[in-house]
Write a structure and sequence with these properties.
Layout: E1 4-9, H1 23-42, E2 46-51, H2 54-66, H3 76-101, E3 108-110, E4 114-116, E5 129-135, H4 137-147, E6 150-153, E7 159-163, E8 170-171, H5 174-182, E9 186-188, E10 195-200, E11 203-206, H6 213-224, E12 228-233, E13 239-240, E14 248-249, E15 252-254, H7 255-263, H8 272-284, E16 290-295, H9 299-303, E17 309-312
The protein binds adenosine-5'-diphosphate and magnesium ion.
């Protein structure tokens, strides 16, 4: 029986760091990513995909703000849904083609996905994630007054709106993801960490927040009973003393040891930190689970346990 691998795709899988952000360039990068991802399926695994959306949703918000005089800007949760559609479309097209070329059945399919968060999550009392355009201090103060947004100075570059990054509690569309997997399709779900929603009666209501995509991938992988959580990013391995002369790349590490390293502060908040956090949550909550943090080009080797940082219980 084939094993389920849940892949979390980082920013570099979707867009070139400093390259142009037009559709053609994005599709080109996604095609390269798809050519590597198809190898995971060829190796006999089932695949489910979670991806980031930071730069993309940022640009959608910007487009909406810039065109506010012409057509009403959409709120942040709706922009998140747009980004899932946009990125998912490119992955469907690119990975679909790679799979067809390899004679593989079961096409990728994007699910606009909501992820449940707790309105009383402590993250809401201290928003940390900057989103959307930069403003002057004056503009920022005006926006804060008019819209009630939290505005913060962002690393000397100007003022921005900041939103909370709450913990993902559940993937709302999990039954649909399961159905797609059982039917042999490759689901692309919880893109950008999912659209954060809270309960509203028998339904849900979108809120302005950003769920970390690595944590959303953990939640999805754990809920699906996946064997492997594969976090693909720019670096081949997580390191101790990252960026210092004594830097040391990590291979196979026990969850217990990795937790100690995390507590010692080896993994930067907002980049490697959430990946290690997601990996540990995944491995520590189920027997026989493996989390792998590696680069795109090592994806298959990573799944086989031959590359990257491999975290096991
Ligand atoms: P993604 O878009 O894939 O989520 P991030 O930029 O958020 O990528 O996180 C990956 C980055 O984390 C790496 O490119 C690296 O610069 C940085 N990083 C921070 N701490 C570490 C560490 N201890 N080991 C390896 N990389 C680290
Ligand atoms: Mg990141």
């Amino acid at each position: 029986m084939s094993e389920l691998v849940v892949v979390a795709l980082g920013g570099n899988a979707l867009q070139q760091g400093k390259g142009p952000a037009d559709a053609e360039s994005q599709l080109r990068v996604v095609r390269q990513t798809a050519a590597l991802l198809v190898e995971i399926v060829k190796a006999g695994n089932q695949l489910a995909i979670v991806h980031g959306n930071g730069p993309q949703v940022g640009r959608i918000v910007l487009q909406n703000e810039a065109a506010a005089d012409i057509t009403p800007p959409m709120p942040f949760d709706v922009c998140g849904a747009m980004s899932q559609g946009m990125i998912g479309y490119h992955i469907q097209q690119a990975l679909g083609e790679c799979m067809a070329e390899a004679g593989l059945s079961g096409q990728p399919v994007t699910l606009v996905s909501q992820v449940l968060v707790d309105a009383s999550d402590p993250a809401f009392t201290k928003p940390t994630k900057p989103i959307g355009p930069f403003y002057t201090q004056e503009e920022a103060e005006k926006i804060a007054q008019e819209k009630g947004y939290t505005m913060k100075e962002d690393a000397g570059r100007g003022w921005r709106r900041v939103v909370a990054s709450p913990l993902p509690l559940a993937i709302v569309e999990l039954p649909q993801v399961k159905t797609l997997l059982n039917a042999g399709f490759v689901p692309i779900a919880a893109g950008g960490g999912g659209i954060p929603v809270t309960r509203q009666g028998k339904g849900y209501s979108g809120i302005a927040a950003v769920i970390d995509k690595d944590l959303a991938a953990w939640r999805m992988a754990a809920s699906l009973g996946a064997k492997t959580l594969l976090i693909l990013t720019e670096v081949e391995q997580a390191c101790l003393y990252y960026g210092r002369p004594e830097q040391q790349a990590l291979g196979v590490v026990s969850a217990e040891q990795m937790r100690t390293y995390m507590e010692e502060g080896h993994f930067a908040a907002g980049s490697m930190g959430p990946k290690v956090d997601a990996a540990l949550r995944f491995v520590e909550t189920g027997a026989g689970r493996t989390a792998v943090i590696t680069s795109l080009d090592k994806a298959v080797e990573g799944v086989k346990g031959r590359a990257g940082t491999i975290i096991k219980s």
